[in-house]
User: Which sequence fits this backbone?
């Protein structure tokens, strides 16, 4: 006779292309992982695909659904945690999808939902990845730009669930049209699609750009297919157009960090998301501009403390850990049960890239 | 024999030129008011001047210091509420002034300090001036620009006491030099000194400006002496330079409101401060720009709900009520003791202008 103790939790990070599943025990130790393609469109297919990925991970862990205390799902879009409904996830084509109840029904375990960036912020805070702090903002730069904010240890969602949507603060009043309808939003300068379109526009359609240089069709193809990473690579290789684009993005991201610091005055601003995976190439222009702010303004120096800005390593699995975290919180498990004390060092980052943004 | 019940609280709003004192009973009814000039510089003079104003107000209320349970002070600058020290109040010339302990000693009642804009935000929230909301931002536009933010019913101060300092978010990267050291801060476009200097620069030193019109020396003098209000008056009278300045300020303030809405997603953004006392002349360009945002973006329309933005009437005494509020909170008195229930209408605004910014 087996006794099921329901001492596992499942975190599901739904990304634009991949869905990552992480099975963890109640103390935060990894029991299993799985990654599968994200299903777009029809609710039945979406639910079934996620359920199959979860079952695969459970079987890898030698467990069954009877061992699961709770499931957490991070979704790149707007969700209503209270009802478990994905209100709108543009990039996934999901609209008013009751993902929470559908998954709970299909898998037979309580399921909670949260916006992926918010869940990641909460996970980074609870796991003390960047120290035991009261407040933290996670700035995710990928297809779009948004932030998740933990203040006084609590996730701040806002009155309409829109808190932290700083990707739509306007940085260039007469700038590029944004998907939101306004012009010159932060996203139109520094998100992945902006980096790609600005580079391609600079190079010119035929590969002969404003820099007068000829660009091989392969360069253009690489940027189209690989995206922002190829723009950073081109900039590193000395391409002047890509360099301008990357520098402008870096200045904009520093501006956004300064904005977050002044608005929230958090202890940590963690930078993540697909675009940030370019690592040093990504951070160098950001750091340069932050240093300029600090050098010219004592207020900026005071609010932009040296430990404030942290780059999340590409393999940090912040999305999946965030999903595990919201599952744990739904069970009333705080960071205490992770066995963390303020004397203990921060947990090491575990895992690999899941492309949570 | 008289029994002293210590059932009064005192709120002191230290403004750049005037200091307002408000004596209130524990239920929020006004017992007395007084206004006196703010003393700059020497700590002894500062403390004595405030103490005399408090004693004057108490005597008007037929009370003595023995009736006072707590004193709250709102200061236009950086304060450390825990130690009662004014770290820096540039416009008052105060630096590391232990105002809390000095006043407590001189007057013989416990004294708490807070930044004036934060105290005002808390007061507006607790008194339900704009309804019983969980979250509220108070955007004060005067000599500088800053905001005080109440989230989930709690004042949000930030890790370094700098939360809400959005006057230094950069709006014009190559703009005017700001007092903080950086260029193009929000303050350099929309705060009082910016309105004045931009108008005078537009008119030209001799009264003949870029608009080709001759400006009477009296116009220039009025702007120099009255300040932003004279700029709004000139704009209303059709002066093209003043109109441009006022329109640019209005667009910037709408931008700041949009920023606050996206960052915090609060239920109310209340606009106050000396510059806002121009009323309709001040708000019309702001509302126009907010409407433009709403018209072009459904996200903006969703976050900029019709009830979101509220203009504080010039006579609202938000600063003095804020100071009363922090005194009440130091006694553990919440809004319940104000006799407010969710069924009750919002308290009417009381009092007159004290120029809290």
Assistant:
């Amino acid at each position: 006779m087996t006794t099921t103790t329901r001492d596992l939790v499942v975190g599901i990070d739904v990304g634009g292309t991949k869905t990552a599943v992480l099975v963890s025990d109640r103390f935060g130790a990894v029991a299993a992982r799985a990654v599968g393609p994200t299903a777009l469109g029809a609710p039945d297919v979406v639910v079934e695909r996620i359920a199959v990925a979860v079952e695969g991970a459970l079987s890898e862990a030698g467990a069954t659904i009877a061992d699961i205390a709770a499931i957490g799902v991070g979704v790149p879009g707007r969700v209503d945690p209270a009802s478990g409904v994905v209100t709108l996830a543009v990039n996934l084509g999901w609209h008013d999808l009751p993902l929470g109840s559908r998954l709970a029904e299909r898998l037979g375990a309580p399921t909670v939902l949260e916006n992926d960036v918010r869940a990641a912020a909460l996970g980074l805070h609870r796991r003390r990845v960047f120290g035991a702090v009261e407040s933290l903002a996670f700035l995710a730069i990928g297809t779009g730009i948004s932030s998740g904010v933990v203040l006084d240890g609590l996730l701040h969602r806002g009155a309409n669930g829109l808190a932290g949507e700083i990707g739509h603060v306007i940085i260039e009043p007469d700038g590029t049209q944004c998907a939101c309808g306004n012009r010159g939003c932060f996203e139109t300068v520094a998100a992945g699609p902006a980096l790609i379109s600005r580079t391609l526009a600079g190079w010119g359609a035929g590969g002969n750009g404003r820099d007068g240089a000829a660009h091989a069709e392969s360069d253009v193809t690489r940027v189209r297919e690989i995206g922002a990473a190829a723009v950073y690579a081109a900039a590193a290789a000395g391409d002047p157009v890509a360099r301008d684009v990357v520098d402008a993005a870096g200045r904009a991201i520093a501006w956004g960090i300064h904005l977050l610091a002044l608005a929230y005055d958090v202890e940590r601003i963690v930078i993540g998301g697909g675009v940030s995976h370019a690592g040093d190439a990504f951070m160098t222009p950001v750091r340069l501009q932050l240093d300029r702010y600090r050098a010219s303004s004592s207020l900026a120096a005071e609010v932009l403390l040296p430990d404030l800005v942290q780059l999340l390593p590409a393999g940090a699995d912040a999305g999946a850990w965030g999903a595990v975290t919201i599952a744990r919180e739904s069970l009333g498990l705080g960071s205490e049960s992770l066995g963390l004390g303020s004397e203990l060092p921060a947990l090491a980052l575990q895992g690999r890239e899941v492309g949570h943004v």
